[in-house]
Amino acid sequence: MAPEFDTASPTPKTAPAIATDGLTKHYGETSAVSDLTFEVPRGTVYGFLGPNGAGKTTTMRMLTTLTKPTSGSARVAGHPITDREAVTPHIGYLPEEPPIYDELTGREQLEYAAGLRDLPEAESTERIESLLARFDLTTDADKRISDYSKGMRQKVGVIQAVLHEPAVAFLDEPTSGLDPRAARTMRETIAELADQQMTIFLSTHILSVVDDLADRVGVLHGGELVAEDDPETLKSRAETGETRSLEDAFLEVTKESSDERREAGVSADPSFE
Ligand SMILES: Nc1ncnc2c1ncn2[C@@H]1O[C@H](COP(=O)(O)OP(=O)(O)OP(=O)(O)O)[C@@H](O)[C@H]1O
């Protein structure tokens, strides 16, 4: 598998999977995302970190065409995010609450998702069965989703997000609710998908997942990108002695930015402005 961008697109194949330029979203007085400019090369894993309310979901909703930016622009898989029809065939999205129907069985939900994506039946059946097996869901695949645990629902949500082999997958907390074995399967699956040239935009509070998988990390705070680097360089910025971790780096860059914002008279949480 090698997810390709739209071959009819004039965009060169070397174009980044995601490129944003001054991407901004205001909700009334609240500045949820401010002037976000970054690029994610194809086939890489981008760890998107930030404290609660930092603007991660808002950014992902803009990049997946679900929310319109107030200003700025972005291209995903070579297409402007203002062109929903062009972007959506090339992306998969696992939001915080996976969009699944309680009255369907797991297998029916995935068949339904494959149908929406116009996947050929033979190909989708094979892929659904292989992903169900990988996530240990085969024996429960014909039970209704209403009877699933949180982790089982999460597995269906993730399978649904990557079923059509999108060029870019946006995953919000993919390991949420998963037991340690399932969380490991998830990490291995994400690594494999990236090896197969899928670009993964990964938002999570589990820093060890980002440390394991991300080629590059962006830290959002108060809607602004306050640090961006590869995990090793980011860790080396932490001044906490010999055992420098991504957690130390995260706490430092978000604290520095809080201090600067406080000095500038800006609340760390824009919702309280
Ligand atoms: N629909 C909305 N209407 C008004 N304000 C919103 C809306 N969605 C988000 N916000 C505000 O925008 C800011 C960023 O929220 P967002 O959900 O993007 O953060 P997040 O980084 O995803 O947080 P978390 O880690 O807690 O999920 C917050 O101040 C939030 O209150």
Automatic annotation (TrEMBL):
GO terms for molecular function: ATP binding; ATP hydrolysis activity. Residues 230-273 are annotated as: Disordered. It comes from the Archaea. SUPFAM superfamilies: P-loop containing nucleoside triphosphate hydrolases (SSF52540). The keyword Isomerase does not apply. Keywords: ATP-binding, Nucleotide-binding, Transport. InterPro entries: AAA+_ATPase, ABC_transporter-like_ATP-bd, ABC_transporter-like_CS, ABC_Transporter_VariousFunc, P-loop_NTPase. CDD domains: ABC_DR_subfamily_A. Residues 232-264 have a biased composition (Basic and acidic residues). The keyword Acetylation does not apply. Residues 18-247 form the ABC transporter domain. This is ABC transporter.
